[in-house]
Amino acid sequence: MFTGIVQGTAKIVSIEEKELFRTHVAELPEELLPGLALGASVAHNGCCLTVTAIEGNRVSFDLIKETLRVTNLGDLQEGDIVNIERAAKFSDEIGGHLMSGHIMTTAEICKIIQSENNREVWFKIQDPEQMKYILHKGFVGIDGISLTVGDVTKSKFCVYLIPETLERTTLGAKKLGHRVNIEIDPHTQAIVDTVERVLAQREAAAAAALGNDAE
Description:
Shape: globular
Number of strands: 12
Oligomer: single chain
Number of domains: 2
CATH topology of the largest domain: Elongation Factor Tu (Ef-tu), domain 3
């Protein structure tokens, strides 16, 4: 479990490609190394990965076929930077919102509006079906960052980024066309799915009642 509060960034220093499989090595900040062990969970751009090897501050992670397909981690090249968060502890402050590290889809940056003290960034979801979970003032995880949703249209949504977020995360360097990982807030997903199911049941019951009356 993660909080969506990015703890630092890490450079990808090597990548080993195999068939439908990849191992990459990230150079983690020194402050994130204490207590790190094999099998630990570390979020890369919001995607939960497992530590497979540790050599000083160089930490290895395996990426399977599904991870490469669903996330933007398959786009990474040596030298690229990713957002990093260690798994949350029970005593940690939840400054963002609870996140699982399970990426649902990706989104493309389609518009950037810069003002004096913040940046408005618009995203177009790759899987349009996921837009029903993106609600005005709701939560969304973008490359592992817990953010509040701003305006929402049928196929796009925006967030507002303060200078601190732009400075501490990779979002400050993102450009038009760049792809980001999206994690839907699980509470929002559960509510939307429940409402849809209840409405479908009511419609089915009403249709059945009309059919009986017609007989």
